[in-house]
Every structure is written in C-alpha cells, then in structure tokens.
C-alpha cells in the first residue's frame, strides 16, 4: 500500500490509501484497519478514501510507480 492524494474541492487535496488487491484481502478489511489507527493520526493525515487497484505499475527495478495510477 501507499498513501497518495486526490483532488478535493474544499481542501485542494486530501490523502487516500491505495492498496493492491490480493486474494483474501477485501476493502472492508483495509477500512477496518484504518479505523484502528485513526486515533493515532491527526485528522488531516487520515485517508479520506481507500482505493484498491488490481496491480501496481512498477519500474524496471520493481519500485511502485505512484503517479496517480488510480485516477
């Protein structure tokens, strides 16, 4: 997973959590995890959306390309 940002009319940008879908990992499970960590994060750092993608785009070295691949 990684944290990115998406456009927001009120704030300009808001944080989003992007995760790679895997067998047995459902979006509600990820959202449940976020509820567990919410008390530990300032409100402006808490992801406003959770986005699951089938597979991350990767560089030749295997690093995740984070350039808004969920738009």
Architecture overview:
There is one protein chain. This protein has 71 residues and is α+β, with helices and mostly antiparallel strands. The chain has 1 helix and 3 strands. A 3-stranded mixed beta sheet has the order 1-2-3, covered by helices on one side. β1 and β2 form a beta hairpin.
What labels describe this entry?
alpha+beta; 1 helix
List the total number of helices. Answer: 1
Radius of gyration, in Å, reads 13 Å
Which percent band covers the strand fraction?
A: 25-35%
Shape from CA axes?
globular
Unreliable stretches (pLDDT < 50, length at least 5) are: none
Give the strand line-up of the largest sheet: 1-2-3
The number of strands is: 3
Helix content: 10-25%
Largest sheet: 3 strands, mixed
Termini, distance in Å? Answer: 16 Å
- How are helices and strands ordered from N to C? EEHE
Which whole number gives the mean pLDDT? Answer: 84
Structural class: alpha+beta
Topology, pairings included?
Elements: E1 2-8, E2 12-20, H1 27-37, E3 49-53
Parallel strand pairs: 2-3
Antiparallel strand pairs: 1-2
In short:
Helices cover 15% and strands 30% of the residues.
């Amino acid at each position: 997973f990684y944290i990115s940002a998406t456009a927001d009319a009120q704030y300009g940008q808001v944080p989003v959590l992007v995760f790679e879908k895997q067998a047995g990992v459902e979006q509600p499970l990820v959202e449940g995890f976020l509820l567990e960590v919410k008390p530990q994060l300032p409100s402006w750092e808490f992801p406003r959306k959770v986005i699951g993608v089938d597979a991350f785009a990767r560089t030749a070295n295997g690093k995740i390309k984070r350039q808004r691949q969920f738009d």
